[in-house]
């Protein structure tokens, strides 16, 4: 990775920051956030504006360019990568470190009095605008919306916004029709006395209409917005995708429908003017529901008194609780995914000693095995295939410059997943193809103990995921170890591999309580800089737990692993496990054998089946 | 407990709500919060306005009276008590239940358009004012400050504000002089570029000046404010307490001092006008530091642009980290406290079978034994002495109407503590003086496992207490049980038994990270309504932990119990303990024997010593 040379680009940007063609008044600073107009985590190439201007292409980061400075805020996952990818025009602001100023404080410290700070109002979430604007205003500056995106004005070879065909999902994949989802949404709206709901997140549009797309890599979504009224449905979407007969049939665009289920299709770019029209026509007490993370531009379209903002939308919450059909789909997807990984690990075991398997080769092989499975669509995120010291880079992705060859002397960490039409997977296994050291086994076993502590935890209905995070760390903490990331995230159903509103993290973000049907990941780790990385990740389903007592009739919950891939017993120091933990491992492996073994058999994959049987032999504490 | 009849009082209050003598314009609602002008948890009788108007005298609750309604918000600890103490004029609003409206939402739902909602600006914290005012304004109402407290206008026999003599604490108790505390405070102020600091919490004033008082029961504080400038010290305090030669000497009021350490003593009631004068005289960039929980009245005295508000003040944070002298004092206090409790439990064991010991008798006896100890000042909170079903009332305090006789058939729960000049104690033990049932033992053992899980936890430096809360619940959760309160609170050093900024709770309040020297309680419980209550509480000191590794050189912490009172082994189902837990119990009891045994011996309390020796016999899992 050599840094991107940005001297000329920054000069150009500083010119347009003063150019009356683009700005009403010159702006002394311009903010380039990570996101797109939908606050997506994964974005299309045309939205990678921050990467274009700085060279830094990690998933999280905000660039701010002033007349004198260019600064980049990112978090601990990306300190190294950002430092490598950016040239000396840029100052790296390491978020989470004590002495790193916030963006607002930094702006106040460098700007001349009475400055204007510009930002694209479609890219900045309303809650962030509010926070930032307040601090800037109190220091005598102004945050101003700049209609035309200034990066786009200098990005001469900016790629086109994708507009790929749609996939329709019938009831056998979704369990609930889009009509019934609209009915449920309207009843939530009625409960809150809200007349309109604006769908801004791409996965929420996709989920609501039982459609999928491929406008964004890894996330099966498409660029669209929707405005749902009590009697109207407006879908904002571009291209000839709506000409596809399957889509027209799915959305019943040509049928005679009750007017409240008639979908009006409108151009993607007309969302703002349509929403402004809605905003202008509101009667007193008619509220409009938006996520508080919706863009400033859309939020401002509704007069303040009429806004109803919540951190999580009713769609976000409904989408998180998978129904029986979705759960069954997720199970199927995970079995297929396990088949592919059994094939992969069996293959790696034979090939690694030859010294010809690089991280990229292994990642490609994993994709190859997955793509052989039914209803495979694409990967669900960039495969983290990392060996030795690369494993300690938590969000590593192998590129030719860093590509390392797997060997029998180093730990190999593979964090990968796929989109199948029936579900989304995300699994991490840490393997050794030679003989692991006692220290490596010790660390692996602490991580495993943490994984089991979460997976086997029983907790009351209504518990928030962040209350479980310490269970994952306790065994590491006892020895003075830890890992610097959260323990789990929500997983979509053939949707985004990261989704809200639940998760398991020490960060006390506003997570919603866990409930049966939610699906999260359980992925503690341990990383030794310059040496190795360990992570053990399963996707787990929240299920009711049977308990001896039932305090206040609240009911209890626990997790059921959906991921069924063997955990390498060679890496376990069994003497460090309790009897309960040992039983968990053996029961987990018994289930892998039973369920995945049957599927391997069915698919005639006998060599992988033999590998599975060997890898799932019970362990015993007496060893 | 028969309810207080409030019909006439409410009539009078509704009259003064419209009386131009007291309100500029009529108010359609009047809020009566719990607190005093210092946002104290424990308040003086003259500040018990909410109890006066409603009859409900629990420690937490907010009353709101409108022309038509009277409603009381309180939390789960007090649902029963509030329901008993209030008459039918009042509606109980059960906080924490899903369908309970917030105060703001309720006001919006009941008030006629364009209403005024009054509140005493000295009693409502600024952050709460802000939140409430915003919601009310957006619904077309106004929150207005009512200078004269309307309850006081109808409270004809309101007690006088206490003004008791002060206690001076020398270095052998505090470890640091008030001058050095001022120096440290000013350096924190300089760091944040703040010119003034306003001390509004009573325990912060007491701590800063190394003074104690007895204006409020259980909390050794006195009514005062202070304004600390970079070169000035103003102490606002009433009465002839400043005539006491010991106090004058302690504060060096008559010495020739550098001007920046000269204390100007001013009347308590002059804080507002003095602070307004400070506010009026500020140059640009001169900020004034206040807690965001300081009263609205004081916060408003400083123009908005000049306020520097934080959830925790530098005094709150400094006060929480006990120095070596304070820690030694706390140790001594806990040894004396243990001596008193060994005497008590030995006495109870003999007396309970006679059927003559009531909850009140036991509480009085505990106080009697404590008062025999050196430097005893008073109790640190109202003793919770509860047997059988009363034990399930979490914040029970025995009164003649509920006073139950201890017996050999019921569990007895004693949660009590004292103020000694060298430290503050708070300990809960749950005992059975006959033969506990298997179920009682089972529940006790889960609670004990939770207590040990927190006490023995090892966690990285910088960990916040709320991340430890689930450790205390895990054993209970496994069986479907739980308890509906936090696990621990900060404990003052001869100061308030509950103090910020740290604690252990599932509520993710803004707790500060735990650090060595902080002192918190560890008190999981289990409560079976109508049957029994179990709680095991130690006060524990945060200390550095020795660990095998040291991730990123962060260092680790753990807890050392300061409380050294035997945990009744008769109540333990040893078969449910792990070996590690069993060892913890035996090691704890070994330490009780060694440390408290020596003190019992020194004090010649041989019978209690024999009780201690018997109660601290090791347990074995083979039993």
UniProtKB/TrEMBL annotation, chains A, B:
EC number: 3.4.11.9
Domain Creatinase N-terminal: 49-150
Annotated coiled-coil segments of the chain: none
Database matches in InterPro entries: Creatin/AminoP/Spt16_N, Creatinase/aminopeptidase-like, Creatinase_N, Pept_M24, Pept_M24B, Peptidase_M24_C, Peptidase_M24B_aminopep-P_CS, X-Pro_aminopeptidase_P
Record's signal peptide: none
Catalytic reaction list: Release of any N-terminal amino acid, including proline, that is linked to proline, even from a dipeptide or tripeptide
UniProt-listed GO biological process terms: proteolysis
Compartments where found: Cytoplasm
Domain Peptidase M24 C-terminal, first and last residues per copy: 557-619
Listed cofactors: Mn(2+)
Family listed: Belongs to the peptidase M24B family.
PANTHER family noted in UniProt: XAA-PRO AMINOPEPTIDASE 1
Function: Metalloaminopeptidase that catalyzes the removal of a penultimate prolyl residue from the N-termini of peptides, such as Arg-Pro-Pro. Contributes to the degradation of bradykinin.
Assembly and interaction partners: Homodimer.
Protein name: Xaa-Pro aminopeptidase 1
Source organism: Thryothorus ludovicianus
């Amino acid at each position: 990775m050599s840094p991107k040379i940005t001297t000329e680009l920054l000069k150009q940007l500083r010119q347009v920051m003063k150019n009356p063609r683009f700005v009403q008044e010159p702006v002394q600073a311009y903010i380039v956030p990570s996101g797109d107009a939908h606050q997506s985590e994964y974005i299309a190439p045309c939205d990678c504006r921050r990467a274009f201007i700085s060279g830094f292409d990690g998933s999280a980061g905000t660039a701010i360019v002033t007349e004198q400075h260019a600064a980049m805020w990112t978090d601990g996952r990306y300190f190294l990568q950002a430092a490598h990818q950016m040239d000396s025009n840029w100052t790296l602001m390491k978020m989470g470190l004590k002495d790193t100023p916030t963006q607002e404080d930094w702006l106040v410290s460098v700007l001349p009095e009475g400055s204007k700070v510009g930002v694209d109002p479609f890219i900045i979430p309303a809650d962030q605008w509010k926070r930032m604007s307040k601090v800037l205003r109190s220091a005598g500056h102004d945050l101003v919306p700049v209609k035309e995106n200034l990066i786009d004005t200098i990005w001469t070879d900016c790629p086109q916004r994708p507009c790929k065909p749609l996939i329709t999902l019938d009831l056998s994949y979704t369990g609930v029709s889009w009509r019934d989802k609209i009915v449920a949404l309207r009843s939530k709206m009625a409960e809150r006395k809200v007349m309109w709901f604006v769908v801004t997140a791409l996965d929420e549009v996709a989920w609501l209409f039982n459609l999928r797309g491929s406008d964004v890599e890894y996330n099966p979504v498409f660029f669209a917005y929707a405005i749902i009224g009590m009697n109207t449905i407006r879908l904002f979407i571009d291209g000839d995708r709506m000409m596809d007969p399957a889509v027209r049939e799915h959305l019943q665009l040509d049928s005679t429908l009750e007017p409240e289920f008639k979908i009006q299709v409108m151009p993607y770019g007309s969302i703002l003017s349509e929403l402004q029209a809605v905003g202008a026509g509101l009667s007193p007490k008619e509220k409009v529901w938006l996520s508080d993370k919706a863009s400033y531009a859309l939020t401002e379209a509704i007069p303040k008194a009429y806004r109803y903002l919540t951190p999580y939308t009713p769609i976000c919450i409904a989408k998180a609780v998978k129904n029986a059909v979705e759960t069954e789909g997720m199970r199927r997807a995970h079995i297929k995914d396990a088949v592919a990984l059994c094939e992969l690990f069996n293959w790696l075991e034979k090939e690694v000693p030859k010294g010809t398997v690089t991280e990229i080769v292994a990642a490609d092989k994993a994709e190859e095995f997955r793509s052989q499975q039914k209803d495979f669509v694409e990967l669900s995120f960039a495969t983290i295939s990392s060996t030795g010291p690369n494993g300690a880079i938590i969000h590593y992705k192998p590129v030719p410059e860093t590509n390392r060859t797997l060997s029998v002397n180093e730990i190999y960490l593979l964090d990968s997943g796929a989109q199948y039409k029936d579900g989304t997977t995300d699994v991490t296994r840490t393997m050794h193809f030679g003989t692991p050291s006692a220290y490596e086994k010790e660390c692996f076993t602490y991580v495993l103990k943490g994984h089991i502590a979460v997976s086997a935890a029983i907790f009351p209905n209504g518990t928030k995921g962040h209350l479980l995070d310490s269970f994952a760390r306790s065994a590491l903490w006892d020895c003075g170890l830890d890992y610097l990331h959260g323990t789990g995230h929500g997983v979509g159903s053939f949707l985004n591999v990261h989704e809200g509103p639940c998760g398991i993290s020490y960060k006390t973000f506003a997570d919603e309580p866990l409930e049966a049907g939610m699906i999260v990941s359980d992925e503690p780790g341990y990383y030794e800089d310059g040496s190795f990385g360990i992570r053990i990740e399963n996707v787990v389903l929240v299920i009711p737990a049977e308990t001896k007592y039932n305090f206040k009739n609240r009911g209890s919950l626990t997790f059921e692993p959906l991921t069924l891939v063997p955990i390498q017993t060679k890496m376990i120091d069994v003497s460090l496990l309790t009897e309960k933990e040992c039983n968990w491992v053996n029961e987990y492996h018994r289930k892998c054998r039973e369920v995945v073994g049957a599927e391997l058999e069915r698919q005639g994959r006998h060599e992988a089946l033999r590998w599975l049987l060997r890898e799932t032999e019970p362990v015993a504490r007496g060893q």
